[in-house]
Amino acid sequence: MKKGKGMKFVGDSRITAEKVRFIPKDYSEYPGKTEAFWPNFLLKEWLAGSVFLVGFLCLVLAHPAPLEGPADPTDAAYLPLPDWYFLFLYQLLKYKFASAQYFVIGALVMPGLAFGGLMLAPFLDKGKGRRPNKRPISVSLMLLGIIAVFWLTWEAASHVDWEAKAEENRPIPPGSTVEIDTEDPGYAVYENNCLSCHGGQLEGVAGPALIGMEYSVEEIKQIAVEGIGDMPPGQFNGTEEELQQLAEFIVATNEQAAEDH
Ligand code: HEC
After folding, report:
1. Under 8 Å CB-to-CB from 71, ≥6 apart: which residues?
2. Measuring CA to CA, how many Å separate 111 from each of 76, 98, 127, 140?
3. Cα Rg for the chain, rounded, in angstroms?
């Protein structure tokens, strides 16, 4: 009997007729240009990652993120600004075509198109070439995007008075519930002259908080007598000795706050 003759072949629907087996590619013809993913490549990635992570942790320990002062709903001069990496989006909202009644364009449509467009990236240049000059469409779109982000960030940043903003949003050391030394002779002077506006804990009431400042004793004395900005002159009434005690008290409290921090 010939092979197969008279036999019935039964198909199994669970097995595809052309079963493709996964055969790992043979890279042996590219010596030195490839390496095993596990463990060689992964180990290198992991090493680089941990060096970066440790460096980043050290940086954060050395320079903790600064906090701004407590929110003050009565402060109309406060200038809320996004962090630098969102300044370009913020800048977009300043243009006529993207603000006021058209804000949807600036807030949703344009960023949505730009970021949504990233999904098109795989379909833009389908060539196999990986050099930039072989991928003109995606490369030029990317360059356009980078230039736009840089330019908008620059525009936004150049219109901000950074020194004034730093002054206004001066970070208050966290935990600035500073222990106020009410026994200090300067506190009595403070109570009589400044407390009504700057608060019993120097936390600020009508005037700003007097914690987190870097004024010297002389500067405080001058401000107490001559005023500053919206603080009218002549707030201090008393002797020169009391003025000295007052200023020393405020500076000492600030030094205490900085230490606690
Ligand atoms: C009538 C309310 C009022 C009184 C009283 C007052 N201040 Fe002020 N003070 C202010 C205001 C408002 C400011 C904010 C000025 C500005 O920056 O425009 C200010 C600012 C200050 C500043 C600068 C704060 C900073 O962060 O730059 C100091 C220091 C200060 N006052 C000290 C004193 C001292 C000391 C006394 C008591 C002798 C006093 N103030 C009494 C209203 C007052």
Report:
1. none
2. 29, 11, 28, 18
3. 33
Compute, in degrees rounded to 10, the torsion defined by CA atoms 118, 122, 126, 130: 80
Question: Ligand 1 atom 39: the closest Cα is on which residue?
Answer: 194
**CA angle (72 as vertex; 71, 78 as ends), nearest 5:** 90
For residue 192, the Cα-to-chain-centroid distance in whole angstroms is 41
Query: Residue 161 pLDDT > 90, yes or no?
Result: no
Cα-based distances in Å from 92 to 79, 83, 159, 189: 17, 15, 13, 50
Q: Enumerate residues lining ligand 1, CB below 6 A.
A: 193-194, 196-198, 206-208, 210, 213, 215, 220, 223-224, 228-231, 235-236, 246, 250
Query: What is the per-residue pLDDT across 44-78, written as a single tens digit (0 to 9) for each?
Result: 999 999 999 999 999 989 887 766 766 777 777 77
Compute the distance between CA of residue 98 and CA of residue 89 in angstroms, rounded to an integer.
Answer: 11
Q: Which two tokens stand for residue 141?
A: 């779109």
Quick one: 238 exposed, middle or buried, by C-beta within 10 A (0-12, 13-18, 19+)? middle
Contacts of 226-235 spanning 24+ positions with Cβ under 8 A: 231/197, 231/207, 235/193, 235/194, 235/197
Span of 103-112, 156-165, 192-201 with lowest mean pLDDT: 156-165
